Structure formats: structure tokens, C-alpha cells
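Quick start: load a record and inspect it. Here is DUF3290 domain-containing protein:
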Amino acid sequence: MVIAIIVIIYVETGEFMDFYTLTYLQEQNNVAQFVQYGIVVIIFLVLIVATILYIKDKFQTKYRDLSIIMALILLFMAGINFTEYQNGRNTSVQAAEATTFLKSISEEYHVKKDQVAINARGLSDGIIVKINKKFYKVNLSSDQTNYVLVRTHLINQKVKIHR
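Running the structure step on this input writes:
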């Protein structure tokens, strides 16, 4: 006798729209970047120890091999970190623009800074700003020196605020 169990999982359609507050954007220190730097430091220390042990006892080829492997891994990680550094620099510039924009909105509308959020981590034309419980579409000028807020309504009201 075969018993079949059928599990029905209800999946709601539609994703949450993510909004980011000023605090979130300011504290957006990339934890993964710090972990990568920590790994590079550990690999560098292992490389130094292996090299010292190899120089101390020249007949132990395992230390030489370990030194070569660590040097290659260190070069590989340095290349990855350089690419991540360039991406992180671009991200931090975008976050700085967004934080300036959020501060401006907060002061102009006389609301607390944690009551203002945007749906992007950078400033661009067409983003949505949430001020208290109202939503506005941002129309930026081509040089991004001024903006117009147009009241808008979300079709999907599922909003997730990252604080």
C-alpha cells in the first residue's frame, strides 16, 4: 500500500518593495569587504610564517610549497579585493548622494529623518520616496541639482523598510 502525502504551499504573488532609510545608507559599511580584508591579512601572515620556516630549514619543501600556494592565493585575493574596492567606491558615492537627498527632503518637509526612505541605494530619476505614509516619484533634473516630487500611489502596498 502506497501512501502519498501532498503538500500545498501557498505562495503570495508579488515581492516586497524595498525602501532604505538615511540611517541604513549611512551605516552601509560592507561587512563582506571587511571579511575579505581579514582573509587577506590571515593569508599574508601564513605566507610570512611559511617563508620564515622555509628559510630556517631549507630541507623542508613543504614550507616552500606552502609559501608558493599562499603567495598565489594572496595575489588572487588582491585582484578580487581591488575589483571590490572599485565597486564599493562607486556604491559609496551613490549612497552619499542619496543621503544628501534624504536629508534635504527631511528638512524641507519637516519630518524626522527616520520617516523618510527611498526605494534605491543611489539617487536616480524615477525613484520612489516614502515620506511618513505617502509616496512620491522623484523627477530629477539632468544635472541632478534639483528635483520635483510627484505624489504617487503604489499598486502593491507591500513595503519593507531597511533601517
